[in-house]
């Protein structure tokens, strides 16, 4: 954060807010002994990040299941679209309440397009006929495939979950930020460990990164549990790694704080597949962060 704030390149960005940005960054975290990269210099709503990760795994791209669990981090985009289309000056809470109450309304207005969940578990395929015409084929479940490849060929260099479906970017509310997850098995037998590298093309360090790190750690832990591997290292790499100019207060407050403590993430159960986890399977212990710091989301 300090590096970006003091040395970043200041520029205007898509949202009109403006950022300071650096390019090509890396963070490494040891996930052994239940360690988890959860910021202690502000309270992070890890529960929302966990619910978001489980939502990706269901393949859903509608904000309704998130809102039913009180998670509002994806509301801004559908809300903006609805306001523009309807001309109605509806407030965020009222919009969210309508999505929850009215299934048909949610179907029309709560969908984000083929974002993460869709690409992860149902990447579209096409089957070509002899006449050159094509029709939809069965979707590809990348997550299930990586679980299988980790079990069957741990040494493979192809354990990848990819969100960047070039052909569908224009239908997504937001093209994926945490776009590529690659897994790697190190060591052998009882001591074999699962490493994960996440490449994030664009990163809102104040709001997005704390969620993305926790989410990636959680995904790695679920993957490791499902493949009988010990949690290894999480390597996070960032493309455009930025701070929004209207996050000044948060940044300055956070830079004055000292990190302290060692939170742990406990997975309480190993369900039959990676798609059978529920929120109650996760517990964070020894988390005593400093106070909440709020900042506006750039839409
Ligand atoms: N500009 C921007 N930054 C992001 O981090 C981001 C996007 N856009 N668009 C898509 C998703 C949504 N994500 C978000 C959106 C909002 C918060 C947020 O407001 N967090 C607050 C409160 C969280 C809560 O109340 O649950 C925080 O203090 O962390 C976090 C991540 C991450 N992504
Ligand atoms: O998981 C996420 C999702 C989004 N972000 C941030 C990164 C950028 O600030 C915006 C996306 O804008 P683009 O113009 O598409 O890059 O959202 C994040 O950090 N983490």
From TrEMBL:
Keywords, ordered alphabetically = Cytoplasm, Methyltransferase, Nucleotide biosynthesis, Transferase
Known EC number: 2.1.1.45
- Which terms in the Gene Ontology molecular function aspect does this entry carry? thymidylate synthase activity
User: What region holds the Thymidylate synthase/dCMP hydroxymethylase domain?
Assistant: 1-299
Q: Where is the active site?
A: 177, 177 (nucleophile)
Where along the chain is dUMP bound? Answer: 14, 157-158, 201-204, 212, 242-244
Q: Which reaction does it catalyse?
A: dUMP + (6R)-5,10-methylene-5,6,7,8-tetrahydrofolate = 7,8-dihydrofolate + dTMP
Identify one Gene Ontology CC term for this UniProt entry: cytosol
Q: What is its main location?
A: cytoplasm
Q: Which GO terms describe its biological process?
A: dTMP biosynthetic process; dTTP biosynthetic process; methylation
Note whether Cytoplasm occurs among the keywords: yes
State one Pfam family annotation.
Thymidylat_synt
Under the heading InterPro entries, the entry gives: Thymidate_synth/dCMP_Mease, Thymidate_synth/dCMP_Mease_dom, Thymidate_synth/dCMP_Mease_sf, Thymidylate_synthase, Thymidylate_synthase_AS
Please state the pathway this protein functions in, per its UniProt record.
Pyrimidine metabolism; dTTP biosynthesis
- Assembly and oligomerization: Homodimer.
Of which family is this protein a member? Belongs to the thymidylate synthase family. Bacterial-type ThyA subfamily.
This protein is called what?
Answer: Thymidylate synthase
């Amino acid at each position: 954060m300090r590096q970006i704030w003091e040395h970043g390149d200041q520029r205007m960005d898509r949202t009109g807010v403006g950022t300071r940005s650096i390019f090509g960054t890396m963070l490494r975290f040891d996930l052994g002994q239940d360690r988890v990269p959860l910021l202690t210099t502000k309270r992070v709503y890890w529960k929302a990040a966990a619910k978001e990760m489980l939502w990706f795994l269901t393949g859903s791209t509608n904000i309704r299941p998130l809102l039913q669990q009180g998670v509002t981090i994806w509301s801004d985009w559908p809300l903006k679209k609805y306001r523009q289309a309807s001309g109605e000056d509806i407030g965020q809470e009222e919009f969210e309440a309508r999505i929850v109450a009215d299934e048909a309304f949610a179907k029309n207005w709560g969908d984000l397009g083929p974002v993460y969940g869709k690409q992860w578990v149902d990447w579209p395929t096409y089957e070509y006929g002899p006449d050159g015409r094509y029709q939809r084929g069965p979707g590809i479940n990348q997550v299930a495939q990586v679980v299988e490849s980790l079990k069957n060929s741990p040494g493979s260099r192809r354990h990848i979950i990819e969100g960047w479906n070039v052909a569908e970017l224009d239908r997504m509310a937001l093209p994926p930020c945490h776009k590529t997850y690659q897994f790697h098995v190190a060591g052998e037998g009882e001591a074999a460990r699962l490493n994960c590298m996440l490449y994030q093309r664009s990163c809102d360090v104040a709001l997005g990164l704390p969620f993305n790190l926790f989410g990636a750690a959680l995904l790695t832990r679920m993957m490791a549990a499902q493949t009988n591997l010990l949690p290894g290292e999480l390597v996070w790499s960032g493309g455009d790694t930025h701070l929004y100019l209207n996050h000044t207060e948060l940044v300055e407050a956070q830079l004055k704080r000292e990190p302290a403590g060692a939170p742990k993430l406990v997975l309480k159960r190993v369900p039959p597949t990676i798609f059978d986890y529920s929120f109650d399977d996760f517990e964070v212990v020894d988390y005593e962060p400093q106070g909440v710091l709020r900042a506006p989301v750039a839409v």
